[in-house]
Design goal:
Layout lengths: L10 H28 L7 E2 L2 E2 H24 L11
Helix pairs in contact: 1-2
Amino acid sequence: MPSNPFPPSDGRHNSRVGLCLFVIYCLLYAGFMLLTTFKFQSLATPIAGVNWAIVYGMGLIVAAFVLALIYMLLCTNDEAPAEDEA
């Protein structure tokens, strides 16, 4: 029976990395919320043919995907799985 290609990692390390990346995303999202609350007119500024709100919103989606990839890379155990002798 083949061994698991993704052996379990240390849970504390994964939690710490996940919380750090979550804080980064929360800061990005808080920036968006602060802009929508206090500088609403600045979001109407056109950038590359669309307004700043659309660019920032799409950036938040891309940032979430990139942070998920970073989490996957940092929390995947790169050790080779042990081979069964039997």
